[in-house]
Amino acid sequence: MTDTDRQTRQRRSAADTREHILRVAHDLFYGGGLHATGVDKVADAAQVAPTTLYRAFGSKDDLVAAYVHRADLLNREWIEAAIRRAPDDPRSAVLAVFDGLRSHLDPATYRGCVCQMTLAEYADGAPRRAAVAAKEWLHARFAGLLRDGGAGDPGGLAGQLMVIYEGALASAQCLGTAEPAVQARALAELLLDRGL
Description:
Layout: H1 3-11, H2 14-32, H3 39-46, H4 50-57, H5 60-84, H6 90-104, H7 114-121, H8 126-148, H9 154-175, H10 179-195
């Protein structure tokens, strides 16, 4: 470790250190898998001692849960930005989410949905709870918009939209193209035409 690395590490606050570790963990977990990526590898790549990592997160499960939560917050940011583009039209707001999905499924950067990947690797525990909470949030957000739009069964319609949304995420990973977002948007529009 160079003197510059030591000085940078010494200047970081606990919050900055935590965020730095999460950024590094994101790249490693997203590219290499959750169980396949060990804490020592994350600590080494982040240039922190394993004790520093454990002080910030407590356990690997806590680190993974924080990684999922961070990815969820970033996801919510773009979704809320899309919804704000159509503030007075719930139907357009829902479709704006599907419109925005295409740029997030760019095959150059998209390897899969962080939550879907977490659910595949964790049958229980904090990481799974974080992933489920992320999916529940989006379902509730869709349901709220649909309720505002006058849907007779906003929860049921939101569930159908979630199936389309989740299918686009999985298909884009499998096929290596953002085209499923276009198809998902068309299906969402058909559902909304029928349900609102």
